[in-house]
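Figure caption, in words: inputs first, then the predicted bound structure.
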Amino acid sequence: MMLNLLRPNTWRTGLFCLMLPLLATGSVQAQSPTLFQQLGQEQGISLVVDELLRLALQDQRISATFKDSNMRRLAKLLKEQICVVSDGPCNYTGDDMKVVHESMGISSAQFNALAEDLQIAMDKFNVPSTTQNRLIARLAPMKRDIVRAKK
Ligand code: HEM
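Bound structure (protoporphyrin IX containing FE present):
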């Protein structure tokens, strides 16, 4: 019996038996990709954000809001932020969303317009709709800090 335990085959069978319950409960699985990976990491996010800001500047519903903005800085910070919210390895170095946007008087319709432009930008780079929805769902809670209800 003791000798049997030392045989490689016995070890292999034993290991397999130990792994079975783990496999059955799904504890041992290839890790599912993060949203950051699904978006194509920094490079994919960078392409989408540049396209989003290009569209936003042409979008009559929101373009006026950006007329005095430093678009280079905004692009850099938006890329960092999308990297962070999608679980990427970045730091967001910008200011708080509420503080930044509160004086802009952004309406709910304008928030939705930017979200629509973001979807168009993601379509351009063939981001799958499930990935698009995951990102939109993570940005949506920011709406309460960005939109200022008009009186
Ligand atoms: C989920 C939606 C949004 C996100 C994640 C977002 C993110 C950001 C970030 C990261 C910044 C830079 C913060 C800083 O300067 O420290 C910023 C600034 C700004 N955002 Fe937004 N934003 C959103 C919605 C909007 C909307 C809907 C508008 C207008 C329609 C808008 C207009 C601006 C403007 C004008 C600036 C200032 C840019 C500058 O002059 O430096 N944002 N936003």
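The chain has a mean pLDDT of 88.
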